[in-house]
Amino acid sequence: MVCITSTKIRLGRAALQEKILVHATALEDENAMVIELTKRRRRIEQQKRFQVLYEGQEVGTLIPDLIVDEVVIVDPKVVTAFTETHIAQMIGYLAITGLSLAICSISKRRTGAVDGPAEGS
């Protein structure tokens, strides 16, 4: 599993700029990533549901945020740091999907940015 911590998520030559995502929730970050990855002709599955089975019976559902090109799970977070819960969640996604690469990305909210746009906007 690969964990990337960044206020900018580089996607090819362009980047999702921090100023666009200052007020973002995790879902807004996710939707912005879908737009950027789709522009780059990536195949995206958003919020695909996977059954969790125990002894052949469904005991729950796991829903990774994004699956890109049927190869990598991408899970944008709006948090200040990863926790053991985030890592366990990604391991669960990998186990249930059969994929071998997961990327957690952090988009930190800027302190004091609630009242207006980011500086330089």
Structural description of this entry:
- This protein has 121 residues and is of the alpha/beta class.
- The chain has a single domain (2-11, 23-111), classed as Trna Endonuclease, Chain: A, domain 1 (3-Layer(aba) Sandwich), CATH 3.40.1350.
- It is 23% helix and 32% strand.
- The chain is built from two helices and nine strands.
- It has helices spanning 26-39, 84-97, and strands at residues 2-5, 9-11, 14-16, 44-46, 50-54, 57-62, 66-68, 72-77, 101-106.
- It has a five-stranded mixed beta sheet. Strands 2-3 form a two-stranded antiparallel sheet.
- The radius of gyration is 15 Å and the shape is globular.
- The termini are far apart.
CATH names the topology as: Trna Endonuclease, Chain: A, domain 1
Radius of gyration: 15 Å
Amino- and carboxy-terminal Cα gap? 34 Å
CATH top-level class: Alpha Beta
The residue fraction in helices comes out at 10-25%
SS element count, helices: 2
State the order of secondary-structure elements, H for helix, E for strand.
Answer: EEEHEEEEEHE
Domain count, please report it: 1
Largest sheet: 5 strands, mixed
Q: How many β strands by DSSP?
A: 9
Shape: globular
Corresponding CATH architecture: 3-Layer(aba) Sandwich
Short characterization:
The protein contains two helices and nine strands, in the order βββαβββββαβ. By secondary structure, the chain is an alpha/beta fold.
